[in-house]
Amino acid sequence: MAFTIGYFVGSLATGSINRTLSKALIRLAPEELEFTEIPIKDLPLYSYDYDADFPPEGRALKEAIEASDGILFVSPEYNRSIPGALKNAIDWGSRPWGTNSFARKPTGIIGASPGGIGTAVMQSSMRSVLSFLDAPQLNAPEAYITFKPEVFGDDGEVTDESTAQFLRHYMEEYSAFVQRVLAVTAPGHI
Ligand code: FNR
């Protein structure tokens, strides 16, 4: 059986190390997971003025989240928090009030930074946001990736076996978590 995973890359940068990490995760993920990126770069800045008539980008985002069995966030840390573009996308997905698209969606959070903290503070912020949005989260393993360019090829190939093993294990645990949540929220699906 296949499970659809909508993934967010929290960086808009052309040379994003987190986009590279997302490619590595897709390569290493178990075969039952099918990935579709949920794009964020063309979303206007959210305001509740849009609630009466969501623009096509906002509607497409909500539909993509709702069509996914699980959501994966692959994001940098900006100034010890969630990048604005990603937070904006989450705000779009959470509204209009009463139509929060993240509710009961199993989520995973992972990110890479050149620094040693490896996006830990961003991930902590994300956990508060996702708790408020009633989105179950993979609690363990945690994955704080210190990005070393010599370990990751541009297409997501991972040259260091212990890093590959860690990321493979993370994705196996994420897949098992998604299936555990679906067994409760969508029992007919499993
Ligand atoms: C950063 N960077 C950064 N790194 C970190 O570990 N903690 C932080 O709080 C910040 N803050 C921060 C703010 C802003 C505005 C920028 C542009 C950068 C560095 C960041 O980890 C580095 O630029 C990564 O390459 C960003 O990931 P992407 O965009 O390449 O995926």
UniProtKB/TrEMBL annotation:
InterPro entries: Flavoprotein-like_sf (IPR029039), FMN_Rdtase-like_dom (IPR005025), NAD(P)H-dep_reductase (IPR050712). Pfam families: FMN_red (PF03358). GO terms for molecular function: FMN binding; oxidoreductase activity. Residues 5-146 form the NADPH-dependent FMN reductase-like domain. One of its GO terms (cellular component) is cytosol. This is Chromate reductase.
